[in-house]
């Protein structure tokens, strides 16, 4: 066991030294690190089943070893030297043990460092509503949420409750009082955690992941009852996020949920991580701010028109993922092939890039429409229009600008 401890320490030191994001340990090959998005084998021995089992036991708590035996996998976090933390997934595969360790950055990143959209700073200080951060696994959702929580903690006196599986970033008490609850350790599940949080005088509730109907329903209700709720989903794009939430519920409940979601949801930030030239990572975002027009689209099941509303909602701080991807390419930050891989409409983006390469693209072609052609206003838009002015009035303090700096996820 002592030998395996030394080996694990060396592996973790290597991850920290190279600023790698992940360490992969599995039978039949040497340990592998993910560095700037690329998988790289370390120059060490090929691991066998005894090696991976010993490595797992050297860092895994007893309760997680029991969970591994019972259900074939477990997740937890560990603290290494100098406060460096790792999120750990242990699992069984082909009868052997495997591990993936994700390095959690030891410092919070600022909005400017990660290129956070301006609209986020306005949304996260509202007194109530649901804000969703979405994207595939490994897209930096946890890092973005941690930056939001840290911004609030630095600037506002609030009671912040987080529900996480596992806890990754530790937040100290600054201006906020912060209580962090780990699923399986401090509370059995997300639904119970939300229910208990409502009795703890919260201002902010962070839900690490909305995994199931019960958690989604509890999060929406918490946002409706006068709290601001942050949560994540593994979806790409605002429109697919809304569809995913609605589709979780039985058909007979979906109309009611559309109405609830249209009033509770205030913003969706979708993101993806890309390799940055010459090295590093950078985030591309899609930002949807829920305006009265988008509330109508959600309520009346016209989600297919959300992308058009985002496209014409620039004055509200909205933009599509493909717009962000195009800017990353145009500014020389990412390769064309990389942005096309992340695009949901690769053919359209490729055509736009080709037009730009030929000098045929009118850079201002999207700026003139803004809200004028927003067909959504045909529903009952004259009713909620005054609320839009209230939103605009609350947004006076947004004066920072975003950049496309490296996102050290």
How would you describe what is shown here?
Helices cover 39% and strands 21% of the residues. Strand 5 and strand 6 (96-104) form a beta hairpin. Mean pLDDT is 88; it is low at 1-6 and 366-409. With 409 residues, the protein is an alpha/beta fold. The protein has a seven-stranded mixed β-sheet with strand order 9-8-10-11-7-12-13, sandwiched between helices. Strands 3-2-1-6-5-4 form a six-stranded antiparallel β-sheet. Helix 1 (2-18) crosses helix 2, helix 13 packs antiparallel against helix 14 (336-342) and helix 13 (321-330) runs parallel beside helix 15 (346-357). The radius of gyration is 22 Å and the shape is globular.
Describe the SSE topology.
Elements: H1 2-18, E1 22-25, E2 32-35, E3 38-41, H2 49-59, H3 62-71, E4 73-79, E5 85-93, E6 96-104, H4 111-114, H5 118-123, E7 129-134, H6 141-155, E8 159-164, E9 177-182, H7 190-197, E10 204-207, H8 213-224, E11 228-233, H9 238-248, H10 251-264, E12 265-275, E13 281-289, H11 292-299, H12 306-311, H13 321-330, H14 336-342, H15 346-357, H16 385-394
Parallel strand pairs: 7-11, 7-12, 8-9, 8-10, 10-11
Antiparallel strand pairs: 1-2, 1-6, 2-3, 4-5, 5-6, 12-13
The class by helix and strand makeup works out as alpha/beta
Give a count of the beta strands, DSSP E runs of length 2 or more: 13
Which ranges are low-confidence, i.e. pLDDT below 50, for 5 or more consecutive residues? 1-6, 366-409
Overall outline: globular
Radius of gyration: 22 Å
Proportion in β-strands? 15-25%
Distance between the termini: 31 Å
Q: Tell me the strand order in the biggest sheet.
A: 9-8-10-11-7-12-13
Estimate the mean pLDDT confidence.
88
Helix run count: 16
Largest sheet: 7 strands, mixed
Oligomer: single chain
Task: Output the helix-strand order.
Answer: HEEEHHEEEHHEHEEHEHEHHEEHHHHHH
């Amino acid at each position: 066991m002592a030998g395996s401890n030394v080996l694990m320490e060396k592996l973790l030191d290597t991850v920290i030294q190279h600023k790698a994001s992940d360490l992969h340990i599995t039978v039949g090959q040497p340990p592998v690190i993910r560095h700037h998005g690329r998988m790289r084998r370390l120059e060490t021995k090929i691991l066998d089943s005894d090696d991976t089992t010993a490595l797992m036991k050297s860092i895994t708590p007893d309760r997680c070893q029991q969970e591994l035996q019972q259900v074939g996998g477990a997740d937890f976090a560990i603290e290494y030297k100098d406060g460096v933390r790792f999120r750990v997934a242990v699992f069984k595969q082909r009868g052997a043990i495997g591990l993936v360790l994700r390095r959690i950055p030891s410092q919070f990143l600022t909005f400017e460092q990660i290129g956070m959209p301006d609209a986020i700073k306005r949304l996260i200080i509202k007194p109530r509503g649901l804000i969703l951060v979405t994207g595939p696994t490994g897209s930096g959702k946890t890092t973005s949420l941690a930056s939001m929580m840290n911004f609030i903690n630095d600037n506002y006196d609030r009671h912040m409750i987080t529900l996480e599986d596992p806890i990754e970033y530790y937040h100290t008490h600054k201006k906020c009082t912060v209580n962090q609850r780990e699923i399986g350790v401090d509370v059995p599940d997300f639904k119970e955690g939300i229910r208990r949080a409502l009795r703890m005088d919260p201002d902010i509730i962070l839900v690490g992941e909305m995994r199931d109907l019960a958690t989604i329903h509890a999060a929406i209700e918490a946002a409706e009852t006068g709290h601001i709720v942050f949560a994540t989903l593994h979806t790409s794009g605002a429109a697919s996020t809304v569809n995913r939430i609605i589709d979780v519920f039985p058909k007979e409940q979906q109309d009611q949920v559309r109405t609830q979601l249209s009033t509770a949801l205030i913003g969706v930030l979708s993101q993806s991580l890309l390799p940055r030239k010459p090295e590093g990572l950078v985030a591309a975002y899609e930002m949807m701010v829920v305006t009265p027009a988008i509330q109508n689209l959600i309520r009346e099941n016209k989600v297919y028109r959300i992308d058009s509303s985002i496209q014409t909602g620039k004055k509200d701080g909205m933009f599509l993922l493909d717009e962000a991807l195009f800017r990353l390419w145009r500014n020389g930050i990412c390769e064309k092939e990389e942005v096309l891989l992340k695009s949901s409409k690769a053919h359209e983006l490729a055509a736009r890039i080709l037009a730009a390469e030929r000098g045929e693209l009118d850079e201002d072609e999207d700026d003139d429409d803004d809200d004028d052609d927003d067909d959504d206003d045909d529903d009952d838009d004259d009713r909620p229009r005054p609320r839009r002015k209230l939103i605009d009035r609350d947004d006076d303090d947004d004066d920072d600008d975003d950049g496309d700096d490296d996102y050290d996820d």
